[in-house]
Structure formats: C-alpha cells, structure tokens
Amino acid sequence: MRGSGTILITASILAFLGTRLTAQTQPPPPKPKLVVAIIVDQFRYDYLTRFRADYHAGLDRLLTQGADFTNAFYAQVPTITAVGHSIFLSGAMPAVSGIIGNSWYDGDEKKIVTSVCDWNVKTVGAPQEQPTAKCTDSDPASPKRLLVTTVGDELRDAHEQSKVIGISIKARAAILPSGHRANGAFWFDDTTGNFISSSFYMDELPAWAAEFNRKKLPAQFVSKKWEGFPSWNFQGSSAIPYSKISASPWGNELIELFAESAIAGEKLGQRGPTDLLTISFSSNDAVGHRVGPDAPEVRDMAIRTDRLFGKLFGAIDRSVGMRNVIVVLSADHGVASTPEHNRAAKLPGGRLPGDVADVVSNALDQKFGQAKWLIPGGGETELYFDREALRAKGISEEDVSRAAKDALFAAPELHVARVYTRSQLDNGIAGDFIAQAEMNGYFPRRSGDLHVIFEPGYIPAQTGTTHFSPYAYDRHVPVVFIGPGIKPGRYNENVKPNDIAPTLATMLDIQTPSGSSGRVLVEMLNR
C-alpha cells in the first residue's frame, strides 16, 4: 500500500512539474503588427445592448469575437471629452495627467485655455489663426498640457521605428490619445475642409494627407441628405462652410476614409515593428447633444458606426490581416437623457432654471458688498474665485467658500447634491464613489475653487442634453478587445477605462504609461 501511495505522489509531483514547465516554456503570443485604438465620442454601453440586433458588421464582430467588459465605468468627474480621451491610452486620472476638462482657467497664463491649445506651435495644413484673449478649439494645438505619457509614447520609446498616428474631427481627440511622441495627429478644420496638424509633429502634411485634402471630399457632404431625417441641415456659414458636418453621419465617414489613407500612406502594420493608430469618431457626440440618447437619430448613428467599423476592418484585413491586429474599443463618456424624455417616463431630472455662478455672485454681493467675485472658465460645475477681489475685500477663501455653499444649498431650484471646496479637496475627502470621483478629477494648479454636483438627471443645458456628472449614464462605456492573445467572451467584473493602457502595455511588453492607475485585464489574456 505504501509503495502504491508513493507512486501516486511521485506521479502527481511529476504532473505538476510538467504543467509548470509547459507554462514556463510556452512562447508568448506573437506581437501584433498593428494596434487600432478606437474611441467613440459619447457612446454609452447600453448602445451595444439596445441596438444589438441592428449590428451586422464591425460592432457585431467585436461583440462575437472579442472580450466584452460589460461593466466599465469612469471613476472621475467631469465626464467630458478631453478627460476621457486623456485617460484612454494613458490610464491616468485628471489628478495626475492635469487634463481636468475641455478647458479651464489657467492661473499662470491668466486666461482660459483648452486642453491642447498651444501658441508656441503653428497650424499645419490651414491658415494660421491670430492669438486671442482665450484659447479656442481653432487655435494651434499640441499635447504640452498632458503631463503623462501614453501607450504610444512608451511604444516609440521602446521601438523608435514604430509609428503612432492619431485621427479625429477634434484636435483634443486626435492629440490626447496619441501623445507626445506621435508621428502625427490630424484633425478636421471646418473652415478649409482639410485635415490639419501641428508643427509640434511636422513642418508640412505628409503626401498622403495632402492628397486626401486635394480630393475635397467634405464638399460633397455639405448638401447630402440624411435619409430619414430631412430636418437636419449640414450647410455651414460662408465663413465656416464645413462647421455642421461634424453633427452629421458624414463627419464619421470622413474620419474612416482618412484612417484608411493613413494606413496606406504610412504603411501601418506593414513594415515590421508594431504600429499604433488611434481613431476618435466625433459625430456621435455632436448628434447626441442635440437629441439625446433615446432619439432615433442616435440609433441610426450607432448602426452607421457598426458599418463604418466593418469597412475599416475590411481595409485593415486586406493590408495587414486582422489576425495580426489588436483592436480596442471604448468611449470617452456617456450622456444624460433629455429632461423631456425623463418627464414622459416619470423619471427624475429636469433643466436647471438658474446659473450657479449667478447665485453665488449675488449671495457674495449681499454678504460682503459688490465685487467681481468669480473668473469665468469653470463651466457649470466648477467656480474660480477672483483672488484679487478677495484680497481687496480682506476676506478669506474659507469665508467666501462657506457663504457660496450656503447660497447654493439654499436654492432648491438648482437641485445641488454636493459642493466641495478647494480646502476639502486639498486635504483629501473620503466617502462614496462621488467623493472619490472628485478627488480623481482634482488637480490643484488647474482646478476650480468650488465644485458642484447636481442631483441625478438635472442638467444646465436649456436644449438637447449634455454630460459631465458622476452618475452611471455618463460613466458607463464600452471596453472591448479583440485580437491575438485575447480570450473572447463577456466579462462582468467592474473595470475602468484606465485599465486599457496598462493592459496594452503588458501585451506589447513596453513600459506602463507614467501616470497609469489601472490594472492589467489578465482575465482575458491567453498567457
């Protein structure tokens, strides 16, 4: 008996060692030739489920052959375009990356700046704008305000011959995912109808981009009708003739066509080293803002997005082979339903009749005497105190903050749920997911002095809808991977979009981006 037991134990040990040896000697999955990182501007996760039966192309391929993370939630406020795009391939919270919004008041420059505006560079591919008192979306742009690295930065640091290209309608959506070391970031100029770039990346457009612009494709879309939605007008003004294309299906079509040209022109995935292409589809956001997530236009845009992805994947398959490509899909934020929809459905929510800045200014005038108390630039949820006014009045920031909070909570029509002061955030606040989201979004040198959270469903927009809140409708987005080394399936664990960057870095065997706070999604990896 003892002998047979010894034999069994020995066999078990040998089997265990054999398994470990096999695991240790099994070669890692081959490196992809190309990584395509797609982020759709304003695409809630439930668009994947609500419209699932309508998908028969690219989204269908991702959902049937990819790893679908069903519970991916952003963990910061605000939930807006620049912030989501900065997180996508850096994995960094605004508290680390410095990208706290689409724009903010910069105390050093003494003006409102956007997340990517940079007057030390020049626009390439369109006439140069003149400097203005505040940065706008038409200004020259670069990633200088992004304080962390991206997957693309780390890829090129490890492999100098790798190429990184970023594409979108919006400058911030092309620049922030692709990073500092990108070979090029390209976005749409609605005055000339060209895709343009920045002298940060190049002195002139590459030949393939210049050739694309010479085709004048946007001109054919200005008068094109959106079938089923005859009231939509895409005709811009004479000064900005292409300004309305982004709020139409044709904005996304231009992005996809330009992406195909970039793949061919740069020979992405066809030269040996792994390349990275980041694409942000912007038109979903422009349409969604006007009509809300429950409108038929949004469903139509989602179906068109599915078809565009199928077209893009077909082009990649012909030039690179999809078996050699990792694709990751996400979104920069969700969106709130319109208050009118909520009212009809007997759900909470509404349009805010007042402005928090006006309420605070009036309250401070009454308590301390008239002054210019606030500096414009924080949007609906952040207020910046004018420190010169505080010094002139001899009033402390603590006293002003306390009076402002009291005034906001005393205005029930504003439906204020929380107010956080700079002092609270500087000292760290503990609490629920909303408190943590505020901490994740707070960068002292750039953030406002007063941070306001409204009740769920309440928005300051007087038409259409918007996004910015810590609530699930703004935070819940797709995270889907497909490609070599990835196990298909539905993964229901809670994850964050911050997890995308460290996961790609692990798959590519490169350094994790410097500000990443995410985890590696090991559950989907064939390793």
Tally of helical runs: 20
Radius of gyration: 25 Å
User: What's the CATH H-level homologous superfamily of the largest domain?
Assistant: Alkaline Phosphatase, subunit A
Number of domains: 2
Strand order of the largest sheet: 5-8-7-6-9-1-10-17-2-18
Describe the largest sheet. Answer: 10 strands, mixed
C-alpha end-to-end distance: 40 Å
Strand content: 15-25%
Principal-axes shape call: globular
Low-pLDDT stretches: none
The portion of residues assigned to helices is: 25-40%
Structural class: alpha/beta
Number of strands: 18
- Any guess at the CATH architecture of the largest domain? 3-Layer(aba) Sandwich
Mean pLDDT: 94
At CATH level 3, the topology of the largest domain is Alkaline Phosphatase, subunit A
Q: What's the CATH C level of the largest domain? A: Alpha Beta
Describe it:
It is a single chain. The chain is of the alpha/beta class. The protein has 2 domains: 34-340 and 470-524, Alkaline Phosphatase, subunit A (3-Layer(aba) Sandwich), CATH 3.40.720; 353-414 and 416-454, Gyrase A, domain 2 (2-Layer Sandwich), CATH 3.30.1360.150. Helices cover 37% and strands 16% of the residues. Strands 5-8-7-6-9-1-10-17-2-18 form a 10-stranded mixed beta sheet, with helices on both faces. A 4-stranded antiparallel beta sheet has the order 12-13-15-14. The two termini are 40 Å apart.
Quick rundown:
The protein is of the alpha/beta class and 527 residues long. 37% of the residues lie in helices and 16% in strands.
